[in-house]
Design brief:
Mean pLDDT: 86
Largest sheet: 3 strands, antiparallel
Order of helices and strands: HEHHEEHEEHEHHHH
Oligomer: single chain
Strand order of the largest sheet: 1-3-2
Bound molecules: zinc ion
Structural class: alpha+beta
Low-confidence stretches: none
Helix content: 25-40%
Length: 235
């Protein structure tokens, strides 16, 4: 295609190469599968995510969730957005237009009506307010970075209480790829425990953590007694 660089040109970041692949290999309106995408970028981990980054640049790529006529492994390249391969066109918009009521309601529901910064629930009282100040939840944008090839941050919606949103501190941000690497490095037992916490959307305490929680509140004399007992047990 005239004027459009090759998606195999590695001088571009992965997100840009994914855009070029869509335009030159898939074509607007056409369906592609996850397998085709991975085969086109065999050396790139998290290619699905890089592809999703294009949505921040006005690209529309539907999954089976957006379009029930698609199979689960299929996606449709609906329309092209910004020409991200042209320098200066790949800057992510800092803020997008305001949310619809339905989008807002979905974010709150997805987040179980909990502030994802401090954990307080809608209408719960802040502990330090003596029960006087109740939490109000808002939806805000959180910067999500990928330490992989694409340096373009993505902004995802998250539930935050008014207090955390007005915190005035630095914007919270997370490097998702770095987190995923940490998760991969956990021991299998820890990964299973982590999966349980994710299911429950809260940390469940193992017996040793419960014991520690009680121990640390003990007066010195009692702590000494426990210390002696464990020392006898472990020899
Ligand atoms: Zn909060």
């Amino acid at each position: 295609m005239e004027g459009i660089p090759s998606y195999q040109d590695k001088k571009f970041g992965t997100m840009v190469r994914a855009a070029l692949w869509l335009v030159t290999e898939v074509g607007e309106g056409r369906i592609f599968t996850k397998t085709q995408l991975r085969e086109a970028f065999p050396e790139v981990s998290q290619i699905d995510r890089r592809l999703r980054d294009l949505r921040d640049h006005g690209w529309r790529i539907d999954t089976s969730r957006d379009d029930p006529s698609l199979l689960q492994q299929e996606q449709r390249f609906v329309t092209r957005g910004a020409d991200v391969w042209i320098p200066g066109r790949s800057k992510a918009p800092r803020h997008k237009s305001s949310l619809t009521a339905a989008q807002r309601a979905k974010v709150l529901q997805d987040d179980n009506y909990l502030c994802r910064s401090c954990g307080i629930g809608a209408g719960e009282a802040y502990e330090d307010s003596g029960g006087m100040e109740l939490a109000k939840l808002n939806v805000s944008r959180r910067k999500v970075l990928h330490s992989g090839e694409s340096k373009v941050p993505e902004y995802q919606l998250v539930t935050e209480c008014k207090r955390c949103g007005n915190g005035g501190g630095p914007d919270r941000e997370v490097d998702l790829d770095a987190l995923l690497e940490l998760v991969e490095d956990l021991a299998p037992l820890e990964q299973r425990l982590f999966a349980k916490w994710i299911d429950a959307d809260q940390r469940t305490f193992s017996p040793i953590e419960k014991v520690w929680g009680i121990y640390r509140t003990l007066p010195q004399e009692s702590r000494g007694e426990v210390a002696k007992a464990i020392s006898d047990m472990t020899g």
